[in-house]
Fold these 4 entries.
Entry 1:
Amino acid sequence: MKSRSMVGLVGYSLALMLFTAGLWAAGTPPVLSGLYVNKDHDCGRVEFMPDGKCFLKGCSGYHTATYRWEGDACVCKPDSEADDAVRLTRQGAGFVDVEGKHWVPHDSLVVMPWTNLVPVTFVVVDDNWFPYQLLGYQNDPDNYGQHTPAKYSLEGLRTAVCPLPEKVYLPSEKARAQCEALLKTLLTTHSTDVMAGEAGQLVTRLFVTSTWALKRRKLEKGLAGGKVTDPFAVKIADMHLPHFVWIMEVSPSCDRQA
């Protein structure tokens, strides 16, 4: 029964692909659905909905829009009059915009870092299902939700969210903005060559840690043999700080490449 079901599923998928290709070849654009990204620009992405709506993302943020077909071109008109329309001309499995940049299905650019690891199965705790469900690659018979339209699989992952401890009250974007503002102030009072070395460029890394871990690390660096080797590190260890703190490491790019 399982083999027949798989054959039936493959046959249905193949028939759907041929039907869609036939619509395109006949000049009748199919209903769009899915996420397309601009290969040449990190900000460019558009997600089409079957009801004629779409979501555009540029460097200024997300915009709701509607789309319509004009021959071989799909024109996405933002709901806001202040935003310009985006014209995408179909090409193969994707599109080309007016600047000649290619928009391709998001799935075609997804590279799973664990692809070469066999077998690969995640244990998932989904609040819509019983706990400890299994999630692997497409067509894995152990994947949960196989009898639903969702067809969950590792290839369907789009975004990873890292939960922070509950006592981290400052969002990461605000922490980065404050750290970068302080860094710019320091760069006006210190020589860039001294801070960045010969490369003249700085590399930053933002992370959150506990005050206890930070002070322990600073004391390990600031004390040796009962003597103070780094007064600044010892000063940090003596500060009154909240339970968790954001840290921005700053180093010359040449140190990162070494």
Entry 2:
Amino acid sequence: MKRIVVIAVMSLCVRASESHASCAPMPAQQVTLVVDTCTAVDTSTARLASRAKQYAGIVLDGTLTAGTSKPSATRVWVPASEKLTCAQVVPASTITATLSFACCDGDPNAPCMIDTSSILTKVKVKVAAAAKPVKQATRAELEAEVEALRAENKKLRAEVEAVLAREKERARRLEAELDALQKQLK
């Protein structure tokens, strides 16, 4: 029994050192990324809550067009220290930056827990000519929209109640007709 435990422990140690060896540092490189989507990292999730400061930032999905041998779709993390927000980045924006990689060998290193090992720093954004940053709605505009939706909801409820009342009346009439037909058959 002791021999099996020792072999298992040694096997785990060898695997751990092999995975550590596979994390050879890759040199950082200058790249250009054309942005498709931007998402703020939700650090309030149970998975990231204990590492909120470490994982704060945004995730960009897009296509690397320069700095690589051929264009390729990728997901990258931009740390909060870059002071870049999704409001500053719209689809088709071009970003030039330094791309580096984290060692995602099972440790909770940023950004490994958000499905990427790519990190962008020294970010410069060029907003696409046709694209305009999305205007943030004001509280008053949002409240007006909520009120309009409530009014529409009230109207739809009234319509549904009217249909239900008609259907109940129709069902009552059909029941009365059915009762009359049953009495005729007796």
Entry 3:
Amino acid sequence: MLLPLVIFLAMVCDALTALLVRHFIRGVSKNKKWCTRLGLRREYEHLDRWATLFRKSLEAKKTYPVDADYEGQRGLAVGLALRSSVKEFDYALEYYAAYAMAGNFMVVVIALFILTVFDLISGVVGAARFWSVFVGSPLILGLLLIYAIQKYCYAHEVEFRAGFITLWAPVQSKESEGGQGEPRERPKEHGGIVQ
């Protein structure tokens, strides 16, 4: 009887996270000013660099349509990475799961904060618990926010990097399993043709 209740509460928590937290985290992670303020400038710059490299390689290849929006390009990068044998893509999945988990923890902290406020209003909670909640909750939320943004940025960086590698990696045919495959051209800033 306890397992269905736990599963239901987890679904409610994840739905609240999707509605309240994840959109906010995505918005902050795409804003250079906020990432710099939170100490995540390097993560933002790495993500931006790989997204730009992927977009430029799409324009150079002209094999796939170049979507104007970020999410379309990211979806294409994920599709290309899944089609390839880039082992690094597993890291993206792990980091994206950590981002989702941090968002869920943020909702739990917010819910506990709200419950404590109601307890405080009803007179159940003393002043010591009041101060620990009002000081501890924002601190925990801030740390979880930084953690979630860091994992979100790195997951997308890996997706763009894997998509870029897939675009410029040699094609391996199934008949020539040990062979070099067909060479593909690379952009000039990446050294020409690769075998």
Entry 4:
Amino acid sequence: MKIARILLTPVVAVLITASANAQMSGYPGMGGPYGGMPAGYFQPTPAPPMNGAGPMGPGPMAPGPMNISPMDPEQAGPMNAGAMGGDNGQWYGDSGGPVEGGMVGSNPGGRLPLFQRSLFRQRTSRGYFTAEALMWHRNDGFARVINVQTPNRLTTPAGNISKFSQPFMRTSDPYFGYETLPRLTLGYVLPNDLAIEFQTFYKDDFDAKFDSYGNSNLDATFFGQQPLASNYTSADAQFINMATGVHSYELNLVETTRVFNFMTGLRYVDVRDNFLFTTFKNGSADSASIGTYNHMFGVHTGVRSHFDWNLFSLDLGTKVGYFINDAQSRTIITNTGLPGRDPGRLGGQNDSMLAETKLALSFRPSASFNVRVGYDCMWIVNTALAVDQIDENPLLGQNTTGYFLNAKGDLFLHGPSAGLEFAW
């Protein structure tokens, strides 16, 4: 408890001081940024004459700047709604419009409307920098059969697939867990209250793996059933390793003065996906690798919403983009003693779409510091993924793995986030 009091005392003191300063700075005539009335209204004025009755004598009080006329109906004076703009004591600034977040008479207890920014939180700074840690999960690959297992080799000759053979491993078996990546945002609010903002995030390897073990009865089929002499046939163990990298760079123009702020910008996204298959048979090994590359450039637009409640705020955002995708793929298969496969690099361009949404809860203890937690989702449509380059046809003479480019895959990333914002 003693440690908690020591830690909380300066925080409470800062909050009380900041709240008092924010209230004093909003009163007209006090030299604050929202002053719109003569300073004389808040300076001592001479006592009005008492009609010759002496300092304490009876008699009607003469009209003065603070009383208008005794017993008269309320009239516009320097301290009532008539002089302050006629809106229940709403504060007015030099421009004649209401000061943002300053309801006095109609808002007892200092609670502010949900859609209104408080004076304590009002940003007077122009630059801001946000550093966040994202913990994202990648969706599983499309379920394509990689190998099969034949339980009884006594009745099924090695190197053959029979009605007893069962799919044993699929490309959906490797599980992508949650992995951490950074996201950085740097922005500056221009004099017209339009912000120019740069944002980037990057992750080199969302990793996943899956291992399958057998007893000389695992047959790989993803590039056709191989002869008995191949290490891909009647194998003892076969492994899958997958990795995905995503890099994003964007430059945006963002509105800052509304509850719903529109934004637009340019964006470059780089998606790389790799599939590695390794087979082991009698101490010998072979491998097959498939790599895809997506270089996406385009424009996006969206909206950001901001709602305040005292020192807390809720931020919602969504954006959708159209991209030109320069997609490529490369398949290399080694097969000891037998023909492998290396058709070379394949490429092409296609249209891609990207949608992104975000929710964040923020706490701002001061005008220059913000702590936030949230949840993000990103969906990329029409992208080349490694497992989508696999042909499931088990017939060796008809299988086309590595000889075509499929850029119709979907990549979905999502997960929680946490970060800090600094403003100056």
